[in-house]
Write a structure and sequence with these properties.
heterodimer; A: mainly alpha; 11 helices; B: alpha/beta; Protocatechuate 4,5-dioxygenase, Chain B
């Protein structure tokens, strides 16, 4: 824990948020880009909408201002692609909950591991922060 | 006068609600977590707080992207459990304390914390899971709740320093409420976890335990931890721990620890909780 004053430099602050491997921090830029993906997902919080969505996904997507890339990622339940398009996991949770997936199941699909492998990793104490802190730092180490 | 008698920091993982609601809370997987709360349940049954100021974050349940308040206080009389995509949890409605909540809201605004006021909202696992962990499954929650919702989803989220200062202001507000009330403040969320991307599943027990250490005593080092440190060290959702700083700030210059518990894993998350009282 480093005792430092919070940064007042918004550019430096935002640049740091992009320096974490395998992570898309939900910045304003992503929130703007993914607005309709997230609002679509929110709509699945009622049983009526979940039933309509399950009956005809494409018709349901057509009710929202979703791009073709977003629709394709939603159809494929490609959560990494949805993060890239500005989706946020707490909103996307409404989609995987509608599918009957738990948080851990859905999260494991983003890691390149099977659910069983992911669960085993968690039981063994989770993924280490070692080597996972900074893209910049990893690149500097790799270059040596 | 009302007084803040204790603070609790606690994870609020949704799977804990599922475990409790389906009777799995003492199985091999969940017992190490729920057993850690046995002491705390006995303690709170003795303490009998009248009100809990429950600091939590809404997980895209009451708030969507239309409106994103940084700090919002629930001033309503009651709150229903939210439907988070699998139907609402079958737990009691949460009873508010509108008199105290409005008093705190007004005091905070005059103290230069520009709060958003909520009159109606449904409350998700962020609020109901800590109630379950502390009280089990009663027919009615034995405490009134002032919900305090913090944005920890859309960046920038509030700084640790601002959260700590808000806690200090909440303590001043509670102290000027004329009714004699035993008030606790709970900070929820965390500990280390990441629910997204290729780095999902990150856990940092060493860092989490240093954070728990930092809640105890007279140090205010934790208020200066920058967002990037939470993100790098504790995963993208570990940022929720800034909400513990509101609780810690409200307890005053120094604290004494009554109980502490830590366990890995619960689903994707490290579970921690700590019970503190102000040290005078």
């Amino acid at each position: 824990m480093t005792a430092v004053q919070p940064t007042a430099d918004i550019h430096a602050y935002l640049a740091e948020l992009e320096d974490i491997p395998g992570t898309r921090v939900f910045t304003a830029a992503r929130a703007r880009k993914g607005y309709w993906i997230n609002q679509f997902a929110m709509s699945l919080m009622t049983p009526e909408n979940r039933a309509r969505f399950k009956a005809d996904e494409d018709a349901y997507y057509a009710e929202w201002l979703l791009g073709e890339d977003a629709k394709a990622a939603l159809r494929a339940r490609d959560y990494n692609a949805l993060l890239d398009l500005g989706g946020n996991i707490y909103f996307l949770a409404k989609l995987f909950s509608t599918d009957g997936f738990s948080f851990a199941q859905a999260v494991s699909t983003m890691t390149g591991m099977s659910f069983a492998e992911y669960q085993a990793m968690m039981l063994a104490g989770g993924r280490s922060a070692e080597g996972n802190r900074s893209i910049r730092e990893n690149a500097a180490k790799g270059a040596k | 006068m009302a007084r803040i008698t204790a603070g609790v920091g606690s994870s609020h993982v949704p799977l804990l609600g599922v475990a409790a609601d389906t009777g799995k809370d003492r199985d091999d997987y969940f017992a190490p977590i729920f057993n850690g709360f046995d002491w705390t349940r006995e303690w709170i049954a003795q303490e009998k707080p009248d009100v809990v100021i429950l600091v939590f974050n809404d997980h895209a349940s009451a708030f969507d992207m239309k409106i994103v308040p940084t700090f919002a206080i629930g001033c309503g009389d009651r709150y229903k459990p939210a439907d988070e995509g699998w139907g609402p949890r079958k737990v009691p409605e949460v009873e508010g304390h509108a008199d105290l909540a409005w008093h705190i809201a007004q005091s905070l605004i005059l103290d230069e914390f520009d709060m958003t006021i909520i009159n109606e909202m449904d409350v998700d696992h962020g609020l109901t899971v800590p109630l379950t962990m502390m009280f089990g499954a009663p027919d009615a929650w034995p405490v009134k709740v002032v919900p305090l919702a913090v944005n920890v989803v859309t960046y920038p989220v509030p700084t640790g320093n601002r959260c700590w200062a808000l806690g200090e202001a909440i303590a001043r507000a509670v102290a000027s409420f004329p009714e004699d009330l035993n008030v606790q403040i709970w900070g929820t969320g965390g500990m280390s976890h990441q629910l997204q991307g290729q780095r999902a599943g990150l856990i940092n027990a060493e860092w989490d335990n240093r954070f728990l250490d930092a809640m105890v005593g007279d140090s205010d080092a934790a208020r200066w931890i920058p967002h990037i440190e939470y993100l790098r060290e504790t995963g993208s959702e570990g940022i929720e721990m800034v909400m513990w700083l509101i609780m810690r700030g409200a307890l005053g210059p120094a604290t004494r620890m009554l109980h502490r518990h830590y366990h890995v894993p619960c689903s994707n998350t490290a579970i921690g909780h700590i019970v503190l009282e102000p040290a005078t």
